[in-house]
User: Fold these one by one.
Assistant:
Number 1:
Amino acid sequence: MLVETQYGTFFVHKTGTGKRTLVMLHGLGSAGTTFAKIWPDLQDYNLVVPDLLGFGRSTVSGTFSYSFLDQAQSVLQLLDHLNLDTLSLLGHSMGGCVAMAVAHMDMARVEKLIVAEPNLIPTRALATPSISARADKISEGDYVSRFPEIFSDFEPNKNGSISSRLYWDTLQQASPVAMYRVSQALLDLNEFDVWKAYNTCVNASFVGERSIEGIHVKLSLTGSVPIYQIAGAGHNMFVENPHSCIKAIRQVLDGTKP
């Protein structure tokens, strides 16, 4: 379904018949289809899975900063249009930062907040092997014009994993301007106190077993948030081990500990 807001038009995957609502926010260069493998076993929830503006099949109206606070405001407008006053949030990677920004702005609306390997500290000039790092030390114009070249190494070969093929497909849908501006927001991460929001607003943090050495995952382990480790998975845990993700989601929303 399409939902018009002040900031643009959201494409929203909506499924499930439950009374409790779970909103899922995807990561940088991805789309709502990131979560497609977990939808079938969560049909007892009202699942709302938007493509964030500039990604997937969602589009912006005019100019848009793609700052986390503006993204959060756009999501809040979407929730208003859908008459969702009470809900739980699940944010993956960059979507985890957007989810924390939503909670920062309107915590009364959020019953439970789950994040999966969100960015927790600024990484500009740290030369981290991340998607956002590809926008460091390059102008927006150069990034946009060279976008296919910058991500040419992501094109999967015939033996590529399902997660790599899925990411490549959604990357082709992403607006290069959105990719650049969100990357800048991730590199600086200075719009609100993300570490404070992580420790005060988040109910559970999912980490892939293969991601333990990542800079943001290492930091997440030092916080006060309960950790749910997804066995055999890396950053793309919702594709690589959907069964464990579903189990962890149910544990969090039902109030049990890992």
Number 2:
Amino acid sequence: MTEQTNPISRLAAILFSRREASVALILLLVIIFMSFANEFFLTQRNILNVGRQASVVAIVALGQALVIIARGIDLSVGSVIGLSAVTGAYVAAGTDSQLLGIGGALGAGLVAGMFNAILYTRFHINPFIATLGTLSIARGIALLMTGGIPISFSGWASYLGAGRILEVPVSLILMILLAGAFIIFTTRTRIGRDIYATGDNPTAARLAGIDVDRTRFLVFALCGLLAGLGGLILAGNLASASPNLGRGSELDVIAAVILGGVALSGGRGSIIGVVLGALLMALLANAFVLLGISSHWQVITKGLVIVVAVGIDGIQRGRED
């Protein structure tokens, strides 16, 4: 009897210890269920739509993952998405240059990320408080720039947000390329290893010669830059930049990161898990729409996902301790 249960126990242990495997299993189960529950789910149009919806969350989550791995958090990404989109549209309209508009959007995100980094590394403000303040500041600036009225933003931005290559959304291709680059960055470079070391034990990292403040500055700057890219994609998809763009996106991003196995305590997590987490969140949202379930349940589900994922992480840490 014991020998028969051992394989099951080992499988359960693998799924519990490897968040990527458990998220992939949930993804598979949802896909199987939805393929029987709705005839439109497995159509090419719907599958690509899920990928497109997941792309922005996944792209911003890549930066958020690095921040959390380095033992920080960035609550401002939703507002930075809106500010970046508005800045890009404003610059493009003022200069009549799509290239400068794209640069303006990315630059706004980068500046916001660097601002958060300075508050954390130079003024030693807790990142939760610092980025909570930036969340309000960025949204306020976006509203002041536009007066609350959306600005038209098309051209190259529309190609990034709504364009397709061989029927595949450009944003989805960009997400895949960035995910591949971040996997290499975090696993094959010294800076990537420094990020994990900083999050695991900042004191030991300093004693090992790692510039902890510079590492944290880098991850916050990257997170802001990717939030800027996310804003650019969202605005391009709508051909319009609204100051309210990205409102609440920080919850989606953090849920994808935590669900993907990144520990809030820092030092652990994988890029593959983050991408799978973003895909699962998008898949659940798509399933709710196809099944006619109220959108309010999506909000509840996101909260439950975060609570359950953090709870599992806490149990794992308790077992390790």
Number 3:
Amino acid sequence: MEEQKKKLHVSGRILTLSVTIVVCVAVMSFLKPETFFTVSNLGSSLTTVTFNLILACGMTVVLMLGCVDLSVGPIVAFTSVVVAKLLQGGAPIVPAILAGLLIGSGIGALNGTLVGYGGLAPFVATLGTQSVFRGLSYVLTSGYSVTGLPEGFSKIGQGTLWGISNLILIAALVAAVLALLVPRLAFFKRVYLVGTSRSVAFMSGINSNLILIAGYTLSGFLAGLSGILMASRYAMGNAGFAVGYETQAIAAAVIGGAVMAGGEGSILGTVLGVLLVAVVNNSFIQFGGNAEWQTAISGIMLVFTLFIDVMRTRKAKRKGLI
């Protein structure tokens, strides 16, 4: 019964988001026909949000566990710096990329270990690693960008295939794979169960700590991937990359149906959440707003969505539905 309610909630959120996005695009196309609904604007907007989409997919899994990952932004920056340093020093492209993915996964595993076996609150653990790896990024670069990267590496983030940005294709592939796997793999069913109740998961023979480590490792892996793509896109590693991206990732996942308490969430909902935030941000810019407001807008949308979810839960409790 509880599982059915969650599915209905997710389905309802997906339908609501889909309609909202269509309405917003239609209104903006009417109000700004010469600048909004154009190939250049839509292509640029989609390319920009690819980093957020990849991070938000990982964040969705962490939120499903009833946790949060505040370190994804610094992981992006740290990975971009390390990979750029390796390439600048003459390392081959493929090994450098693999090193970046390994670093992201390792930091994620560290977060999961601190939360699972260390007993630290997710907020505290990842806030700590957030500071550590952002700081290390600045230590490694002394505040300067790491440039002089091979052209072959830059083509990954700057190139196109069939006229579509490689970044869009990679992000779409990541989202599609996770959207297919999350409802089907036994691992993700364990993730839902751990997020719903660790005690129930324990009685079911599930090692919650290992699931936590695996979930955080996936988030770190995707953050590392995002850092590699960002370094490729801008042809440099930079300690200032992805500042505030954790807020945008959390906002997209929560808007898409994930709940901070855990046990709920869907990749499709997260994709729609990312698109809705992107449409709102782009609309704001279309009317002369400053692009620096993007993180603030994401925060506002996050707070509003959380408020609506709290009201929905209270109403359901009054009716005896939960």
Number 4:
Amino acid sequence: MDIPLRLVCIDAPSGTPRGTLLSLVRQDPQAAGVLTTGHKTELGRDLTGYATVTKDVRRLREAGTLRVDTDGLHASAHDVAAGGDIVQELLADSRWETGARHAVVLGAGGAGLALACVLTEASGVRQVILTEQSSARRREVRHILEAAGLDGGRVALAPATQNDSLVAEAPPGTLLVNATGLGKDTPGSPLADTTPLPARSLFWELNYRGQRPLLARAQATTGSTGGRAVDGWDFFVRSWFEALKTILETNWGRDELATFFRCAGEVQKQW
């Protein structure tokens, strides 16, 4: 796959102000665009200064991809497109189809909120519970859900202090998503080691690297619980694919996606 881009990694610490992030792009005359995994909510919180924003940016207040052209910066959110196909594949599992069709998403950052919204639009989903540790972020997410008409409906927002009880009480066949980031750059797990995973549950770890102790526990207990565990590699690769499609303004399809996965797999072997 011939991609006419040079990738430059910029390690901007968590909490870097939006103005600082945007200046990093504007100061580089050769920049074609930006993909960010850790600053999506910061870039989407304030939409001033963008030439255009997509409906998902407006709806979710996250901007994971910025495309640069002569008009300025064009903001889009790639989590919805990246997670949509994976969600459909997971929900086609017999564990989900014969279960209560209940989902618990741990972590209401950009990816967690996007996936919660994707799940509300998926066929047959009855309940989505979204948890978040930060009270400020919960207030922000509550306003976003209200604006989207999802508050008090199929998406319930809860503090992360309820993670263990919500998971322990979840019905068989529950889709459980770790979107907290714990287990990758920050060690730990959003659940206590003693918290049982639901029977026949589908566990989706969004982290694509790191120790990921919750993923390891889910994988180790699939035999006894009848569940399934999925890591975050596919989501990570699809996110890059969707972002590059936007930045390059291409109409790549499934053939290009398959090639992209093969190329990413070769790179992963060198890690």
